[in-house]
Each structure stands twice: as structure tokens, then as C-alpha cells.
Here is the input.
Amino acid sequence: MSTDNRPIGVFDSGVGGLTAVSELRRILPNEDIVYLGDTARVPYGTKSRETILRYAEQDYDFLKNLDVKFTIAACGTVSSVMVGENAFAPDFCTGVIQPTVEAACNASKNKKIGVIATSASIRSGCYERLIKQISPETDVYSKSCPMFVPLVENGYTYRGCEAAAAFAREYLIPLKSEGIDTLILGCTHYPLLSQTIRDVVGNDVSLISSGAEAARYAKKLLGESGLLNRKSEAGILKLYCTDSAELFRESAAHFIDLEGIEIEKCSLR
Ligand code: DGL
Here is the structure.
């Protein structure tokens, strides 16, 4: 059985991609993971396509130089501009769009799917296009939620936070009124607001986490390609960020248990 002990690389504009890391660690506990959060330049979701592509290329190159065997662009915004865009990533990598859309199409019974994501992702139309490709009879209702990322980056993720609840009502009541039974959390930050989101859309709507779906998809691809790590000891997680490591630790602590995990500030070129 073939094996590859090099780490898996994961990147995002900030801490949101850690939702993919959490799932990776759950389903592939022996894999080493290196994570890059470009915290000096977050958010990406309000930037132009050209700028996002340039940033993503630098993120990708940074991980490539650490000799990762596979890269997950665990950022809905980057993934949305990468669709059909192989220029900077000719190697083995995935974004979040394809796995997330497949999971949503499988989950939806009434063929009414809501999509929430950053402004750049919604503007790209990529979720809607792919849903229609896979399931032409599905109606898609999209909404950008620009306030969600700053709420998450600043830790306003606890249930009962009035500010987060107010924005959730503003963004989600229109989607709920359309009768959606499935909601794509198309930005990897959003699962941190799951409780708040659930309080608005109700328990009968399936929430699809883009980070978690990308992690499961990565496991499938690595397995099919004989690239899984066959070590018996627990994998090591190393985190890099482009702004203060201390600030990153504060935000990241909302996503994963950071005990014993090294965080290093780096610069990108
Ligand atoms: N985590 C990023 C995403 O999935 C969004 C954050 C940003 O706007 O940079 O889209």
C-alpha cells in the first residue's frame, strides 16, 4: 500500500479555514497539517477578483515551499475565483465549491437551496452555476453576508450575541421565507455562527459546512491516489499567520484546541 508522509497544506484569509482543519484532524488523525491564515490581509471577500487571485497564489506558493503533498484552499472566496482557474495551482489541490455543492444537492429534498457567502463569492455566481449544473431543477437563493466574517474574527460567535443575531435575521429571514431546506455555509468562517444561524432558519434546514466538506473530499482524493499517511502516531498541526501570532491565537481559540500547537508569523512574497 503506497503512502506519503508529507503534510497536507490548508490556507484561508484568516481563521475560517480552521473549520476544515478541525474536520481533517477528526477524519485523518495521523496526518501532519500546515495551515496558513493570511490575517494581515483578511478579509478577502470584499476585494477584487485580481487581488484575491494574487493573494491566493502567494498563499499557495508559501505552502508549496513547505513541501505539502496536497493543498486545500479552505476559503470560499478564493475557491470562487479559482473555479476554472488553474493558473496558480496546476498541482494537486482542491477548493471548497465542488464538494460543498455536491453535499448540498444530496441533502436537499425539496430542491430549494440557500447559499450564503462573502460578497466576492456570491458575485462570482459559482455556487449557483454548479448547483444548476448538477441539479437543474433546483432553485437557488443566494445572499452575501459581509458582516459575518468580522463578527467571527472578533469572537462574536457565542449563542445569544445580539449583534450576530440581528445580522443573521437580516440576512437569513428572506432565504427562510423562500422555503429552503438546505443552506450552504459557503464561507469557511460561518460554521462558527451555526447556532445563531440555526436560531433563525430552524432545525429543519440542513446546514452544509464548506470547510468540513472540503476536508472529506480531500480524504477521498488522497485515499484514491495512495497518498495517505500510514504513521501510527498522531499528526502534528503547525499554524502560520501573516499578522501577530498572539492575535491569531486569540481568534483561532474559538475554532480549535490550541494546546501544544505552534503558531508562527510569516511573510508572503
Ligand atoms: N473564509 C473566507 C471564505 O471562506 C472568508 C473571509 C474573507 O472574506 O476573507 O470565504
